[in-house]
């Protein structure tokens, strides 16, 4: 089990305030550990110019890197003065998500934190292409931070999949709850951890095509299966029944609504990390949920996840 002692913060280069760094400091102040503030940068113009020699281009890149390092240290000056262990690292790389994931692997980081932008009109989070790449491919847990103070009496919500369609869901559920309990004990005083699951209603076309099909019986049976599975899960972690929630509906609607009702500070979701054709045909349930969230997100991969990024050649 990770101890969250080696945090990597992906710095947002486009703003002075760094909510992800602030959240990392919050964790370290309660749990100990160290932080690396990391920023990959790239400017094509420095590589395209033919007026400079390779040595001059290299010197200019190093100058830009030094400037950005100084800028990050200025953003973190209050934390550094307070004795927080923060290392600053800036690299020249034209694919930011690859640079971040390589740094996660090479540095042995056990938690990646990055800011997620907010749609002020709807208060939901906005995820950039970089965010999606990290959520799908980063091997360690990814904490997407909302630019907002942790809510008073904020709860922690774990979205679990209690369907028996895929065998890996059971192991992933256990990992999500165990990780959440461990992390919550370290950084939140007396946290309320809630487990949430959703089950789909009977498809309308089945009721039309099969006259003898009773959708109410089907829905009741499905709910019963989910309640039994939820009971088995919560009992393994000594979680009270009042902290478990099973609702009819789509996860992308149910989980964000429950998070709002419970004043959640963060929701923990398992992400399989499908990409390419498998993602197009099978979909990524958690990603549909993510689009509707209004709180922080902690995304966790299942055991055995293989990072698709080649981290052996750090060019």
Describe the fold and architecture.
Residues 4-146, 222-301 form the UspA domain. Required for resistance to DNA-damaging agents. Belongs to the universal stress protein A family. It holds the Pfam family Usp. This protein has 315 residues and is of the alpha/beta class. The chain folds into two domains: 1-149, Rossmann fold (3-Layer(aba) Sandwich); 151-314, Rossmann fold. The protein has helices spanning 19-31, 44-48, 54-75, 77-81, 96-106, 129-137, 168-187, 204-209, 215-236, 251-261, 276-282, 285-290, and strands at 6-10, 34-41, 86-92, 111-118, 125-126, 142-146, 155-159, 193-199, 244-248, 264-270, 296-300. Strands 1, 2, 3, 4, 5, 6, 7, 8, 9, 10 and 11 form an eleven-stranded mixed β-sheet that branches. A hairpin with a 6-residue loop joins β4 and β5. α5 runs parallel beside α6 (129-137). It is elongated, with a radius of gyration of 22 Å.
